[in-house]
Write a sequence for this structure.
């Protein structure tokens, strides 16, 4: 499967967990979303547990999100057909009996880390596949921001490429993440069937503007940039700052070392739009709300810088008149796409065999 085919419509991995929404946005009011080019309605039962259903009544395909939640079920706003959380029609007021074909698809969903996760593939696979584990999630000495999101008018793989490219910070994020060494320090790239890691240590440099007020030591720092993307599209950016001389692959733990982990979850809406969700996790000041708000605002501003660039890239690649070229910095992205293509082919073969 070629790079071009991976950005074609409807080419998405389905047997995996995606983020559908921040959890707080899903309430007793129906919420319409589109994920992997499928219309879905989200709501909560009376006990707070989440439901995800195909957003189309089987009668005339009116979106169920235009109806209302009644008890634990959702009622169509056209003729009152009512569906439970499993997608089964439990009431058809205009009929003597419930039609056999009166059902909609239901999707496995789970709340985790303040995000609502959805399984878009074969439902029986969901129980055997854990959601991403976040280290130190329950550690009282760490703090995690509430989830946030951004709508990006670009294919999700352009965002993946960006999240496997530490060098872009030297030009896109000049006032926040850029610092000496970010433009030319060589990368170490590791790939396996789960995804790709691009990482590098930069030694004896001043912390960049975003991190300078956050680190707990004075002077120069050894800095780790760890850019990782796991299939289908979950990015983990680890930023580590150690006092100069204490960093490197064999670095030992030290209370002065500052660690920030950015979890980025990309959910395709379709081939032209992506929902970008993220969490920021740090190992300092767990109760400093002002600091949390400052970090959250800075992160969102940086992601907005990425959005502007990548929406323009999407249009440029979609409407190009001349061939595009590759650079050495694309190595991580290329290896990720190779792993993605292999997984897509394996998934297609599984679906074909089951049919």
């Amino acid at each position: 499967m070629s790079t071009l085919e991976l950005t074609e419509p409807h080419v998405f991995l389905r047997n995996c967990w995606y983020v559908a929404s921040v959890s707080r946005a899903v309430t007793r009011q129906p919420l319409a979303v589109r994920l992997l080019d499928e219309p879905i309605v989200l709501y909560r039962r009376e006990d707070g547990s989440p439901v995800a259903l195909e957003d189309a009544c089987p009668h005339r395909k009116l979106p169920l999100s235009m109806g209302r939640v009644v008890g634990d079920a959702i009622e169509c706003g056209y003729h009152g057909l009512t569906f439970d959380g499993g997608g089964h029609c439990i009431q058809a007021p205009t009929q003597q009996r419930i039609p056999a074909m009166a059902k909609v698809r239901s999707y496995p969903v789970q709340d985790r880390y303040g995000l609502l996760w959805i399984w878009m593939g074969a439902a029986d696979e969901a129980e055997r596949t854990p959601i991403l584990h976040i280290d130190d999630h329950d550690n009282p000495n760490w703090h995690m921001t509430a989830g946030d999101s951004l709508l990006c008018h670009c294919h999700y793989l352009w965002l993946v490429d960006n999240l496997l490219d530490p060098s872009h910070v030297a030009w896109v994020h000049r006032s926040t993440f850029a610092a000496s060494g970010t433009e030319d320090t060589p990368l170490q790239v590791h790939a396996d069937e789960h995804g790709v890691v691009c990482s590098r240590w930069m030694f004896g440099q001043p912390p960049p503007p975003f991190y300078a007020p956050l680190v707990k030591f004075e002077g120069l720092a050894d800095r780790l940039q760890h850019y990782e993307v796991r299939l289908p599209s979950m990015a983990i950016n680890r930023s580590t700052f150690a006092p100069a001389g204490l960093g490197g692959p064999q670095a030992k733990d030290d209370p002065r070392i500052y660690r920030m982990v950015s979890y980025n979850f990309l959910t395709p809406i379709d081939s032209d739009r992506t929902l970008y969700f993220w969490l920021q996790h740090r190992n300092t000041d767990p109760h400093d709300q002002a600091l949390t708000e400052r970090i959250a605002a800075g992160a969102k501003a940086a992601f907005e810088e990425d959005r502007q660039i990548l929406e323009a890239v999407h249009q440029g690649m979609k409407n190009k008149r001349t061939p595009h070229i590759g650079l050495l910095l694309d190595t991580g992205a290329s290896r990720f796409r190779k792993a993605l293509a292999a997984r897509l082919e394996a998934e297609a073969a599984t679906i074909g065999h089951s049919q």
User: Anything to note?
Assistant: The CA atoms of residues 45 and 285 lie 36 Å apart. The chain is about 20% helix and 30% strand.
